Structure formats: C-alpha cells, structure tokens
Amino acid sequence: MFDGIKVQDVSVNVDALLKNDRLTFGGLVDTQTGFILSPIRRAQDQGLNFRLIPYQTGQGYRVEVKGSLHKFYNNGIHNADQYTANDLLLTLNRLVTDYGFNLSESKINNIEFGVNIELPFAISQVFANLICYKKTAFCIRFMQSDAVLRL
Predict the structure, then answer these.
(1) Between vectors from CA 101 to CA 51 and to CA 88, what angle results, nearest 5°?
(2) Domain boundaries, the chain
(3) Using CA atoms, how far apart are residues 108 and 6, in angstroms rounded to an integer?
(4) pLDDT value at position 149?
(5) E strand or H helix that includes residue 10
(6) Residue 43: which of 20, 61, 59, 60 has the closest Cα?
(7) Using 50, 70 and 90 to split pLDDT, how confident is the model at 142?
(8) Which pTM does this prediction carry?
(9) What is the rounded distance in angstroms from the CA atom of residue 22 to the CA atom of residue 20?
(10) DSSP 8-state secondary structure symbol assigned to residue 80
C-alpha cells in the first residue's frame, strides 16, 4: 500500500491554494518586532503538510506537499486500515478536486510503500527482540496495563 509521499514541486495555482478554505498558511514572525523569521509559509490538512517556498526571484512560490495519503484518505484520523489501489486513485482524485493539483505535471520525489502481513508467531516476539533505533533504546508501552517495557 502507498502511504507517505513527498512532492517538492506541485503543479498547482498558488493563488487558488492560498484562497482554499481548507488551508490556513502561516509563517514564522517575531511577535515583538514583526520581523519575518522565515519566508516559507506552511499549512496542514488531514495528514498533509504544505509549504510555499518563495522563488529566489521573489516572484511566486514553489509548492511542496508531504504527508500520508492513507491518513488523508481517512480525513486525517488514522492510517490503520486497509488502503487499496482503488483507494489510492480516489485519494489522488481528491488532491485534484480539493486543492487543484495538476498530477500529470507534478513529480513525486519520495513515496512510502508498505505491506501488511500476518506473522506466523506472536508480535510480542518481535517486540522482545527490538534493541534500538537511531541509537535510542526501544521503550514499549502496553495499552492494557500502562506498564513500560524497556528493551
């Protein structure tokens, strides 16, 4: 299943995107002086993160979008169910209708692809054998007892 996506140059009408009721673009501003700390404007909607990055010429923006297509499909609530190829097509259609993306002119830079599999053994065996990730030891919380297992 496809999930995470990153498109660094979305083909879209930026003026229409800025007027889109679903998006509120903000930027980093010093609240004491009003000085703009970063010209990059950001917005979020249902699992997708939008960034408007000014061109060096000062004329217009490059639009970047990244996030979870699966979560966007589920209205930003979760990505914990089946997500079929047909669901992906429906999601892509929503990007066109909700935001005005021109998909044939946009290039995907990164895409996350995952597979759900049933294991022939208990998942606890996997958890018991996890050591670390990026030099940080795993800490697993069990929902039922709120106990913590440090591996």
Answers:
(1) 100
(2) 2-114, 117-151
(3) 6
(4) 47
(5) none
(6) 20
(7) low
(8) 0.75
(9) 5
(10) -
